[in-house]
Amino acid sequence: MDTYKGNILIVDDQLENLQVLSQTLSEAGYKVKGAVKGEMALRASRSGNLDLILLDIKLPDMSGYEICQQLKQEEKTQNIPIVFLSALDEVLDKVRAFKVGGVDYITKPFQVEEVLARIEHQLTIRRLQNQLQAQNKTLQQEIQERKKAEEEAEAASKAKSQFLANMSHELRTPLNSILGFTQVMLRDGQSTDEQQEYLEIINRSGEHLLDLIDDILDLSKIEAGIIQLNEKDLDLYYLLDSLEDLFRIKAESKNNILKFNVDPQVPQYIKTDEQKLRSCLINLLGNAMKFTQLGQVELRVKLHPEADPANIEFQVSDTGPGIALEEQPDLFQAFVQTSTGRQSAQGTGLGLSITHKFVRLMGGEISVSSEVGKGTVFVFDIPFQPGDASLSSAQDSQQVIHLKPDQKAYRILVVDDTPENRKLLMELLSPVGFDVREASNGQDAIAIWESWQPDLIFMDTRMPVIDGLVATRMIREQEKQKGLNPTVIIALTASAFEQRRAKIIEVGSDDFICKPFKSMTLFKSLSRYLNAAYIYEPIPESKRKQRQYPARTDRFWEEELNQVGETWVESLYYAAREVNEERVEELIEEIAPTHPTLSEALTALFEDFRLDIIMQITQDYLERSP
Q1: Is the CATH code 1.25.40.10 the one for domain 398-538?
Q2: How does pLDDT run across 96-110, given as a tens digit for each residue?
Q3: Helices (H), 292-374
């Protein structure tokens, strides 16, 4: 068989024509889909990744002209070349075909060699057009890339501590709003199942980003090797499930196939550093997704119980452009990017270096194998200890809903120059029963403090006019001069640096809370410093239905297909091979009442137009059968 040449959709209600063309094009190296009706053709076209459509004019439900017109009106399908294939031989029929957007017209009966030649001609034209567009884009980017590289080199030579301090503040400030309002929405219990799922994904992604900031902003710690290992009980299946959620939308946006394949022997609960393992997987999956277009990204997880100590292996593979052999030895060095990475104009060159250091810290090793034009495989392993299922998901099971009765009306002043941050604290504290006012800078905060005398101030540290540190010092000086009882002042800081925190306490703050924070952190601070007591209610269980790992393996298919029998499997194989969608759907519906698990798995493939996978699964099963 020739090498893969492209994806072609054949639309013809004559099954003989469809089968002949499908077999011929497959043998010529093309991946072929078939459709016998107009609606089927439109759905298959919109599913993506087609390089050319062979389109009959006379179909049962609509004409080929109508199909072509609809596809040319849609952004996603308007650039797919359409070659009409029809028994109509009148000049007016051909003219109309070209008017609605066709690029060629082949009259039935046809010679197979002619069809192949015309297809290859159209695909060659399309490839040349794509190459010209890519070359023009590359030329336009070269000057910008060189200028950007010079600026990055200059920036790297500046004082690292100032850069990191600014980055810490700038990254944590928006994260505070993202995570904070997500918690507010999760608390209200009014969201639908789908909204709940999205909020949980946002929250998990934001918390992971916060973990990354904590670990990688202070590069000096990584370089000095003093980042600590924080092992705890972990639900590995839940972690993998959340990662698949995280990358599924990205995969769909790039028309990539995303696969997670977990060996059934892999334990669900382990003890390891969850934050660092998650970081490693996200870095590798993120790179694979970034550099792969119209391909596949796969994560395979398997257990090596015979190793000493036992370890789990993670393999991330892609079908992207690959990495040249001469570039691979320096791949895990900080700020090193491959030629592909530089062309993408994305990233800093830190991800793989951090991953390498984290894997080593967890006691494992990481390696890479790659071939230009064929893809890349990263493999790393980590030793582990069995985890405690009861501890892995331990978390606060209650949430504050209101202050207990018979307490004073606590006055809380919220000081922050960012409106979103002030609104977040107002939304968290006011419904519970606190009397809350707000100020946008230190000067206004001092004025409200003088006239209102709050019980506690949440004071941002970086603000215009008068910043939080100066404002705190001025309030403490006035308290001494006037003999007033000290107001509790808790600094809100986006800095991750110890010297900054020491300065916060030095000016008179009672405590500090790092942004972003969890709502319970605020309530615990208010309880500690004001003796506030609360009424609680249980946190509602997630409405979201979790997928269960391990993923469907060969053993799953064999066990399920054994139950329906070889005759049915053989029928499904032939229906899939002949691209007979209606027959495939009938066979799946036939077993739904008695074999729902198998029916659900096959339906997912069918709805994704993956008759090729259904054919392969059934073919493998039949070949193994005695």
Answers
A1: no
A2: 999 999 999 998 888
A3: 339-344, 351-361
